[in-house]
Amino acid sequence: MNQSNYFKHILLKKCIIFYGKIIEINILRNIFSIIIDEGKFTTIADIFLDRIIRFTIFILYPFKGILSEESKQIKNINWIIDPLDGTRSYVNRYKGYVIQACRLESGIVVESIIYAPAFDKCFSFLEGDSPRENDEIISKPIDKKSKIRIIDNYPSPNGIIKYLYENINNSSYVESGSLSMKSLYVCLGYADIFVKDVLVRDWDVAPIIPFLKLRDCIMRDINGCEFKINPLSYEKKGLVVCSSFLSEKLFSLINAYYD
After folding, report:
1. Same structural domain for residues 21 and 118?
2. Which of 9, 168, 194, 203 has its CA 20 to 30 A from that of 211?
3. Rounded CA gap, 94 and 116, in Å?
4. How many C-beta neighbours within 10 Å does residue 6 have?
5. Can you give 62-80 as a three-state secondary structure string?
6. Residues 27 and 133 in one domain
7. Same domain, yes or no, for 165 and 250?
8. Both 105 and 153 in a single domain?
9. Residue 168: how many other CB atoms lie within 10 Å
10. Does residue 45 belong to any structural domain of this protein?
11. 43 and 34 Cβ atoms separated by less than 8 Å
12. pLDDT per residue as tens digits for the range 194-243
């Protein structure tokens, strides 16, 4: 492992955790929750985190091309950040939001940081090391032969998730917040299937990619095509994250839903 990258990674992780704690301070939260763009549902917290994480990366790393939800540079990209994934959850004081960033080399995620401030949990990865949760190596989840857990952010199954829930035998439903958190829960073994049939952007889920191997998970678009990071085409048609052994049956049901 490159020692210089290791120390930069540790410092960036500490900074992101610190920034997450700032937006959790009660006396500041009402200010951070002010919506400054109703159309995009952008808050002061989104802009604050975007600017300060960009500045931190600029100080620590050379050759910084950054693709972010708040500023869509598309050339020479080697960082992708989502300053606040789950802004509505943050504004409504739910816990399912994260701050995340990842570094790319030749289109491959080689470094990733995902911090959930409300849970004070930081998930991280650096090439040459194992995925970690709060600095501890994450053990490979043990799949239990029990219910197939389908995850989404509604109180009860809705849309395509409702169809899957009704057509997969022995299924159960789990509620969670941001796109990233739901995808991560599948990788960690807290859920088995996550499907979203809306446009998904690279910054929503790129930091999750190193965690897929924890459980031999797949990440595809809604048509079953591999989810490839591409700053020149960062919008994808939907998202499917699931255990690989479920993929054939799952896409058969997805195709039936749209037929």
Report:
1. yes
2. 168
3. 11
4. 14
5. CCCCEEECCEECCCCCCEE
6. yes
7. yes
8. no
9. 18
10. yes
11. yes
12. 999 999 999 999 999 999 999 999 999 999 998 888 877 888 999 999 98
CATH number at residue 214: 3.40.190.80
pLDDT-based confidence at residue 148 (cuts at 50, 70, 90):
very high
Let me know: does 156 contact 144? Beta carbons within 8 Å: no
Number of domains into which the chain is organized: 2
Residues 249 and 157 in one domain: yes
Per the structure block, which two tokens stand in for 129? 């090391």
Mean pLDDT rounded to a whole number for the chain: 92
Task: Express each pLDDT in 93-121 by its tens digit.
Answer: 999 999 999 999 988 999 999 999 999 99
Domain-embedded: residue 143: no
Q: What range does the domain containing 211 cover?
A: 148-258
Instruction: For strands 148-152 and 171-175, give the pairing.
Output: parallel
**DSSP-derived secondary structure for 180-223:** HHHHHHHHHTS-SEEEEEEEEEHHHHGGGGGGGGGTTEEEE-TT
96 vs 90: CA distance, rounded Å: 8
Sorting pLDDT into bands at 50, 70 and 90, what band is 176?
confident
Average pLDDT of span 161-173: 93
Q: Among 137, 163, 190, where does a domain finish?
A: 137
* Same domain? 90 vs 152: no
* pLDDT 10s digits, 37-74: 888 899 999 999 999 999 999 999 877 788 887 776 66
Query: Is residue 142 in a domain?
Result: no
Taking phi first (over 0 means left), then psi (-120 to 50 degrees means alpha), and beta for anything else, what does residue 36 get? alpha
* Whether residue 164 is found in the same domain as residue 118: no
Q: Hunting for tokens 């930081």 — which residue is that?
A: 122
